[in-house]
Amino acid sequence: MIIIKSKEELLGISESGRVLAKIMEVLKNNLKVGMTTKELDQLAERLIREENAEPAFLGYQGFPNC
Q1: String of b and e for 4-22 (b: at least 16 CB within 10 Å)?
Q2: Minimal CB count within 10 Å: which of 2, 36, 48, 49?
Q3: What one-character DSSP code corresponds to residue 58?
Q4: Which of 57, 55, 56 is nearest to 46 (CA)?
């Protein structure tokens, strides 16, 4: 089945993609040798929340984030 998205839904998807691209660029530019995945995860969460967004998998079905 094909679900047709509304204009508002498409705008939301587009905005979330823009936010994700921005966050991925910042993460890429902040990677350092010896950096732990936990440090990277914490940076990602902070950046996501600064965009007034919510991390999709954080806490999902008990996923601990580290």
Answers
A1: eeeeeeeeeeeeeeebeee
A2: 2
A3: T
A4: 55
